[in-house]
Write a structure and sequence with these properties.
Mean pLDDT: 86
Low-confidence stretches: none
Number of strands: 0
Number of helices: 4
Helix content: 40-55%
Strand content: under 5%
Largest sheet: none
Length: 97
């Protein structure tokens, strides 16, 4: 069985370096239809909130078993597992204070 090559392999990096970017002025956008008024009305901004209360990105190591249990708990509550972890840590820290 052949090993699958990732994009970060030496060959992948070499191939990426040989590709020259194309300026926007040379890209043919003619086959992309214009957005309709209805599509523009339904459009919503995505990304991080504009306020100064953005959460800080950290790295944490959890055992696979614990992470699996947390994901199952979050799924039962219908929320993302990172949100559940945040809520659990916030609750635990407020009780400790």
């Amino acid at each position: 069985m052949k090993k699958k090559r990732s994009g970060s392999s030496a060959r992948g990096r070499q191939a990426a370096e040989s590709v020259k970017p194309i300026p926007n002025s040379q890209i043919d956008f003619s086959d992309i239809p214009e957005s309709t008024e209805e599509e523009l009305r339904r459009a919503r901004r995505v990304g991080r909130p504009a306020g100064g209360m953005a959460k800080q990105l950290i790295a944490i190591r959890l055992s696979p078993q614990l992470l699996s249990r947390l994901r199952k708990m979050a799924a039962k509550q219908g929320k993302p597992y990172q949100t559940l972890i945040h809520e659990l840590l916030e609750k635990a820290s407020s009780h400790a204070a």
